[in-house]
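Collaborator request, handled under Task 6.
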Amino acid sequence: MIAVLFDGLVQGLQLGLLGVGITLVYGLGGVLNLAHGQLAVVTGVAAALLIGAGFHQVPAVVLGLLVAGLMAVVVDRTLLLPAYYRHGEERLLLALILTLGLAFVVDGFLAYRYPSIALTLRLPIPALTLAGVRIRTVSLAVSGLALLAFALLALFLQRTPLGRAVRSIMQNETGAVLCGIDVDRTRTIIVGLSGLLAGLAGLAQALFSHLGPEMGPELTVLALIVAVVGGVRSLTGTFIASLLLGLVYAFSSFYVGTYLTWVLLLLAALLTLLVRPEGLLAYWT
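Structure tokens returned to the collaborator:
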């Protein structure tokens, strides 16, 4: 039971990496990226190709993360530009259509070009026994990686000038422009950061089992569920929701199986939309 509980918290941290990326982009640019999961998959495919070419695992995954971040920046500066010229619901709807099309293109290309490529990462020591409980080293590695990423993100948003600019834009974009903040440059940096976070979530998946080219839609749906339950404008809400949903995922998978687990996660998102459509925390925090 304790092992399942710990795995649920670790799963929640992985979901948090996905959901926070969605929340950052929506809070800053007012768009939902339906190709978010594909960024994680691109990280895995790039890393797998580099490892196959003779690279060591560490530089391969670092380069894979950079590929995902660069892809996110390119998408922001090209594909999403027509959406940024619009406002409100028009921006959101156009971005949904554009990123959905991008997701189809990426999925189709990877399925055609790299159908059998998958990234699987293994640690030298498979498990440790702590206080009489056998814990996989993968769980410790993923939790440490995720907590470090969240800590650095919090420091970035709270302590750096760019982070304060991000928070200003999210609170009042017009006021931020009047204060001289370069909204376009700031948004591009944050979109690139969201790509890196998606890549980290993909690496966590590769540590747990494998990351294949077909997993983009699944990861995008998980990111959206976390963002909807936590609140697409609340980083704190997204983090709390990811931990709660991670526990639901772990215990339901253990007791009733994966299929019903997906049903429960979707029901959680549906109930949130019905009872509290703004998410667990209503405002940007």
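The cover message to the collaborator said: "Strands lie at 127-130, 133-136. The mean pLDDT is 89. Please let us know whether this matches your experimental observations."
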